[in-house]
């Protein structure tokens, strides 16, 4: 955390706060000076206290420290870049992960996920299941799942039997309740639910998928998740067609209108493919 000293100094000076004032009750002025000069490291607890003196959250401080740029970390960046249909990108990520000389547990788990995705792209589901087995074994042994774990679960959800996937989704949604006051968790929750809906459609569990989609639509409206809402409208149309209900066209129109407004042509094309695949249109 030595690099953080320079950022602390810039913020402190911009607010015209003395070293004595910011360090009061936390650490000596002389030690604080050494922190700013990158001579000593600073314990996390004291860092939190210093930021409290500045009226600043850890997230804001890190954002400033990274030159006002988001940086979710290498593992999360790789998870966020998941493109199951892009074999070239998958192989590039697999090679990057294999090249790490001292991989962490998370590096190993990411490698397993990307290798499983590559296996699935070759229709080898048996190998894919074996490749992620250790991840699920670890997760099953822990009572607490953190956001990174939940992102992993979302990435491998399609490899579980549909009944198991449903139980996992319900459990994850309950655990996400603890994080509901933390920003961006609603998007993760919607991602999980929207993937579960597609899994239900693929397994022809149309009634369950419809009720899940209707709940998801309300969730997306409440949390202003309009891209997820658009996809949910289109999938509701798919489900109404499969259940021989009327008004499917209404939901197709709603979904595609939202995506046209946001000019999301890529998702429009993907959802049109889903309509052809799952309704035989």
TrEMBL record:
<dbReference type="InterPro" id="IPR010057">
    <property type="entry name" value="Transcription_activator_Rgg_C"/>
</dbReference>
<dbReference type="InterPro" id="IPR010982">
    <property type="entry name" value="Lambda_DNA-bd_dom_sf"/>
</dbReference>
<dbReference type="GO" id="GO:0003677">
    <property type="term" value="F:DNA binding"/>
</dbReference>
<dbReference type="Pfam" id="PF21259">
    <property type="entry name" value="Rgg_C"/>
</dbReference>
<dbReference type="InterPro" id="IPR053163">
    <property type="entry name" value="HTH-type_regulator_Rgg"/>
</dbReference>
<feature type="domain" description="HTH cro/C1-type">
    <location>
        <begin position="8"/>
        <end position="61"/>
    </location>
</feature>
<dbReference type="Pfam" id="PF01381">
    <property type="entry name" value="HTH_3"/>
</dbReference>
<dbReference type="InterPro" id="IPR011990">
    <property type="entry name" value="TPR-like_helical_dom_sf"/>
</dbReference>
<protein>
    <submittedName>
        <fullName>Transcriptional activator, Rgg/GadR/MutR family, C-terminal domain-containing protein</fullName>
    </submittedName>
</protein>
<dbReference type="InterPro" id="IPR001387">
    <property type="entry name" value="Cro/C1-type_HTH"/>
</dbReference>
């Amino acid at each position: 955390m030595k690099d953080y000293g320079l950022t602390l100094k810039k913020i402190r000076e911009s607010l015209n706060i003395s070293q004595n004032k910011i360090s009061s009750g936390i650490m000596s002025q002389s030690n604080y000076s050494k922190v700013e000069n990158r001579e000593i490291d600073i314990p996390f607890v004291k860092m939190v206290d210093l930021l409290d003196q500045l009226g600043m959250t850890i997230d804001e401080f890190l954002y400033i420290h990274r030159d006002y740029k988001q940086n979710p970390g290498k593992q999360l960046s790789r998870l966020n870049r998941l493109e199951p249909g892009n074999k070239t990108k998958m192989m590039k990520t697999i090679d990057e992960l294999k090249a790490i000389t001292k991989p962490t547990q998370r590096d190993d788990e990411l490698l397993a996920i990307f290798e499983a995705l590559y296996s699935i792209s070759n229709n080898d589901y048996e190998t894919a299941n074996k490749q992620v087995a250790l991840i699920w074994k670890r997760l099953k042994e822990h009572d607490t799942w953190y956001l990174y774990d939940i992102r992993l679960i979302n990435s491998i959800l399609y490899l579980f039997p549909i009944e198991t996937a449903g139980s996992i989704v319900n459990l994850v949604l309950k655990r996400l309740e603890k994080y509901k006051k933390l920003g961006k968790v609603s998007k993760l929750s919607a991602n999980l639910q929207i993937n579960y809906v597609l899994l239900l459609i693929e397994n022809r569990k149309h009634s369950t998928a419809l009720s899940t989609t209707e709940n998801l639509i309300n969730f997306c409206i409440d949390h202003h998740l309009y891209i997820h809402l658009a996809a949910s409208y289109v999938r509701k149309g798919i489900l109404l067609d499969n259940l021989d209900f009327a008004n499917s066209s209404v939901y197709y129109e709603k979904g595609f209108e939202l995506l046209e407004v946001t000019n999301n042509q890529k998702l429009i094309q993907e959802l049109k493919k889903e309509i052809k695949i799952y309704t035989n249109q």
